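Tokens as discussed.
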């Protein structure tokens, strides 16, 4: 069992998975998985302190565990950021 599989088991049923880049022209993609948070809190431009800075473009956003492994392969993600938010 891999490290990713162990982390996926710890998640709720519906984590929010976001693929983003640091700029439009960047080639490297980043993945952040949010547990216990609404997709509306992530995908808003009105937040004072956004969870992902507004200048970073989202490439994909999805709700559910199945996106994690698929997008790791699709985008060539080397490390995943796991975020637990208790609000």
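Sequence:
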């Amino acid at each position: 069992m891999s490290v990713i599989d162990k982390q996926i088991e710890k998640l709720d049923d519906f984590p929010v998975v976001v693929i983003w880049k640091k700029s439009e022209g960047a080639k490297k993609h980043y993945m952040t998985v949010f547990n216990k948070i609404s997709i509306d809190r992530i995908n808003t431009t009105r937040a004072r302190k956004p969870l992902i800075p507004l200048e970073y473009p989202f490439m994909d956003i999805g709700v559910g565990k199945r996106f994690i492994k698929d997008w790791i392969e699709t985008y060539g993600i080397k490390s995943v950021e796991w975020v637990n938010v208790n609000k």
